[in-house]
Amino acid sequence: MSDAKNMAQSQSYAADSIDSIQRASSAQQKDTPVAVVSSAAEDDTSVVPADKVDERKNGFLAYFKTKEFYITLALGQLLAIANTSTSTFTTLLGEEGWAIPTFQTLLNYIVLTCIFTPYTIYRYGFKGWLRVIYTDGWKYIILAFCDVEGNFFIVLAYQYTTMLSAQLINFWAIVVVVVLSFLFLKVRYHITQIAGIVICIGGMGVLIASDHITGTNGGNVSSGHQLKGDLFALLGASFYGLTNTAEEYFVSKKPVYEVLGQLSLYGCIIDGVQSAIFERSNYHTSVWDGKVGGYLTGFTLCLSLFYCLAPLMFRLSSAAFFNISLLTMNFWGVCIGIKVFHYKIHWMYPIAFVLIIVGQLIYYLGRKALAEARKPWLGRNQENGVTGLFTAKQKIQHVVPAGADPHEHDPERPPAANTSAA
């Protein structure tokens, strides 16, 4: 009898224990979503490192308080002068009766290949370099093709039109860049950026008006040749717009030496084949002397400098600002042309130059500290981008240095052993 009573008590205790366990489990399940929601809320409200960098400079003129702003302006004018110099040498070559546009740019690709391809192999190792060709080669081939054809048509345009007229291609290149960046890179332009672009284009309009008033366009060119040259310049501008937008994307995700090495390597091949097919007769009819050699050397050095600096500009700013910076080429072209081609400068030219510079200043009104260096396609913290000179990711890592790598390399392609020790 007592055994039955004890057994009943044991069963009662077991039932109570099971009920208490079930209640505790139910309470835990009810509490778990709250904890998850609370944790998620904390993650949503946590400060993004990139935002912390942006907030270091406050106000409507925040970007004007950074050294990167002044580097961007200076770099833009240096690029404009370098590009104007290449235009000047191209015009001088045309006056000497030398007309092999594809071969002219081939020398630039050879110089860049000799510099950047060996360095890429050194950084990645030969197998790593072959892996770049295997995985991304087709992308760089398209980039190189657009670049080669852009150079080809603009150099060809200088043979049929004037230097000042051909330099107006920058207007159409801006349109191409803005449209492509908006559609494919998801770039959204602020009202001040649009206003800055419009003012810069207005400055270009003043240049055109001054040429119309004075009746000079930088040379004596027949209307038929002028039209052909302008069409070539327009086609070249379209290729330039494609190249600039694509190159901005590449240098934000890849090291500069990889992009320039691959671009120049495939550029050599495409340019060389095109020159051999279409310009064989020009090699015999063109003039070859010391003066032509000097002009070719000057052209190649200036264009190589331009190619080396352009990726840094794309990282600091954007393809759009890169192109509006080049609008001052017309002013620098006239300054050079006064001495070299005996141009006469009109009083409206300085006004146009000031308008373009003012437009560039307005372009960056209201921008934060990182400005356009913070690319929208790289993620909130630029985690999908490369760490390198003038990248936003490098500045962000100074704020949150944990795990930062001081060396520039592709995050999807770790550096070879010969750089890991550093």
From TrEMBL:
The chain crosses the membrane at residues 69-94, 106-126, 138-158, 164-184, 191-210, 292-314, 321-341, 347-366. Residues 402-422 are annotated as: Disordered. The keyword Transmembrane applies. The keyword Transmembrane helix applies. It is a multi-pass membrane protein. GO terms for molecular function: transmembrane transporter activity. GO terms for cellular component: membrane. InterPro entries: EmrE-like, SLC35_F1/F2/F6, SLC35F_Transporter. Keywords: Endoplasmic reticulum, Membrane, Transmembrane, Transmembrane helix, Transport. Its main location: endoplasmic reticulum. This is Solute carrier family 35 member.
